[in-house]
C-alpha cells in the first residue's frame, strides 16, 4: 500500500473539476489549479469527489481527471480519488480504475438513494476493501446521501486492514469526538468534512479537513489546519475567523455551484458546470464576491 492511516493529514482540498463553458473538462485549468494548491501549501487533494462533480462525469472522464491530477502532482502531495457508487460492483470497478490511475487512496461515499442497512454498509465496504488493495477512506454525508453510517459500523470497518480513515461530514462534533475516542488511531483516523466545525474536530484528535473552502483559500486553510493539529488555538482561531464567512456562503446554493463561481470571480476557472447543476444565480454574486473580499482573497475593485 502507498499510504498508512496517519500519512495523509492537514488541509485536503475537495478539488473542483474545472470545465469550459460548454461543460467539457478544462484540462489546462486543472493543471493550473493543482500547481497552485501545491505552491500554496495544500497537504493533499481529493480528485472527483462531490465538489469535483463525480456524479456527472463519465467513468472515462472520472479516471482521466484522477490520472491527470496524479501526473501533475508527481508524488509531491498525496492524491485521494473519489470512487464511490451505490452499487457495490460498480464501486469495486471504479476503485480498481483509480488504483491503476495511481491514486494514493480512495474516498468512498456511503451508497446513496437505496438506503442500505448498517449491515449492508459494512458488507459494501468490506467487499470493496477485499477486492482492491488500496487504502480506503469512508465518507459519511447523510445530508446528501439519505443514509447515515453509525459509529459502531465505522468501528467494525476499522478492523479491516486497508480501511484507514473516514470523512465525517455530519458536522456533529460530540458524535465525531465519540468516534475518535472509540477508534484505535493506528487502525483508522477521522477527517472533518465540514469546514465550519473542522477546527473543533481537529483539536479533539481529527487528522485533517477535507475542505470546500480550501479551493479558494488554500494557504489560509493549510496554515489553519497545521495550527489545529498542533493544538495551537490562538493562531488557528485567527485564521479560521478570516474565512468563517466563506464556510457558510459557499453553500448558499448546492455545492459546488458557489465555489466554482468564486473561483471564476478569482480568475482561476471558467464558468463551466454540468446539468443538473447550473451557474450561481445572480442574486448571490455580490454575496460571494463580498465574502472573498472580506477574507482578503480578492480586492473590492
Reconstruct the topology from this structure:
Layout: E1 10-14, H1 27-40, E2 44-47, H2 59-73, E3 79-82, H3 88-100, E4 105-109, H4 118-131, E5 136-140, H5 142-145, H6 151-157, E6 163-168, H7 173-182, E7 189-192, H8 198-203, E8 208-211, H9 218-229, H10 233-249, H11 257-265, H12 285-294
Parallel strand pairs: 1-2, 1-8, 2-3, 3-4, 4-5, 5-6, 6-7, 7-8
Helix pairs in contact: 1-2, 3-4, 4-6, 6-7, 9-10, 10-12, 11-12
The ordered string of helix (H) and strand (E) elements is EHEHEHEHEHHEHEHEHHHH
Largest sheet: 8 strands, parallel, barrel
Percent of residues in β-strands: 5-15%
**Rounded average pLDDT:** 96
Uncertain segments are none
Q: Globular, elongated, flat, extended or rod-shaped: what is the shape? A: globular
Separation of the first and last Cα atoms = 49 Å
Strand order of the largest sheet: 1-2-3-4-5-6-7-8
Count, helices: 12
The number of strands is: 8
The whole-angstrom Rg is: 18 Å
Helix content range of the residues, please?
40-55%
Q: Could you say which structural class the secondary elements and strand pairing correspond to?
A: alpha/beta
Structure description:
The protein is α/β, with parallel strands linked by helices and 301 residues long. The chain is 44% helix and 12% strand. It has helices at residues 27-40, 59-73, 88-100, 118-131, 142-145, 151-157, 173-182, 198-203, 218-229, 233-249, 257-265, 285-294, and strands at residues 10-14, 44-47, 79-82, 105-109, 136-140, 163-168, 189-192, 208-211. Strands 1-2-3-4-5-6-7-8 form an eight-stranded parallel beta barrel, surrounded by five helices. Strand 1, helix 1 (27-40) and strand 2 form a beta-alpha-beta unit. Helix 1 packs across helix 2 (59-73), helix 4 runs parallel beside helix 6 and helix 6 runs parallel beside helix 7 (173-182).
Amino acid at each position: 500500500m502507498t499510504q498508512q492511516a496517519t500519512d495523509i493529514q492537514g488541509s485536503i482540498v475537495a478539488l473542483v473539476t474545472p470545465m469550459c463553458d460548454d461543460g467539457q473538462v478544462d484540462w489546462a485549468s486543472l493543471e493550473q489549479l493543482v500547481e497552485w494548491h501545491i505552491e500554496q501549501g495544500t497537504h493533499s487533494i481529493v480528485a472527483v469527489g462531490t465538489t469535483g462533480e463525480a456524479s456527472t462525469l463519465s467513468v472515462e472522464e472520472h479516471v482521466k481527471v484522477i490520472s491527470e491530477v496524479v501526473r501533475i502532482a508527481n508524488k509531491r502531495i498525496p492524491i485521494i480519488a473519489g470512487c464511490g457508487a451505490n452499487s457495490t460492483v460498480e464501486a469495486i470497478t471504479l476503485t480498481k480504475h483509480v488504483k491503476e490511475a495511481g491514486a494514493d487512496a480512495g474516498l468512498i461515499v456511503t451508497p446513496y438513494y437505496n438506503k442500505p442497512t448498517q449491515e449492508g454498509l459494512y458488507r459494501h465496504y468490506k467487499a470493496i476493501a477485499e477486492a482492491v488493495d488500496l487504502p480506503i477512506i469512508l465518507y459519511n454525508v447523510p445530508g446528501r446521501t439519505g443514509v447515515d453510517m453509525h459509529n459502531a459500523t465505522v468501528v467494525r470497518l476499522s478492523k479491516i486492514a486497508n480501511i484507514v480513515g473516514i470523512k465525517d461530514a455530519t458536522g456533529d462534533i460530540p458524535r465525531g469526538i465519540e468516534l475518535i475516542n472509540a477508534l484505535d488511531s493506528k487502525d483508522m483516523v477521522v477527517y472533518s468534512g465540514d469546514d465550519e466545525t473542522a477546527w473543533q474536530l481537529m483539536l479533539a484528535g481529527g487528522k485533517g479537513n477535507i475542505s470546500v473552502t480550501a479551493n479558494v483559500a488554500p494557504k489560509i486553510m493549510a496554515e489553519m489546519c497545521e495550527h489545529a493539529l498542533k493544538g495551537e488555538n490562538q493562531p488557528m482561531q485567527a485564521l479560521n475567523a478570516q474565512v468563517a464567512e466563506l464556510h457558510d456562503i459557499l453553500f448558499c446554493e448546492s455545492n459546488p455551484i458557489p465555489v466554482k463561481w468564486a473561483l471564476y470571480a478569482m480568475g482561476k476557472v471558467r464558468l463551466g458546470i454540468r446539468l443538473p447543476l447550473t451557474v450561481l444565480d445572480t442574486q448571490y454574486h455580490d454575496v460571494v464576491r463580498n465574502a472573498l473580499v472580506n477574507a482578503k482573497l480578492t480586492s473590492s475593485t
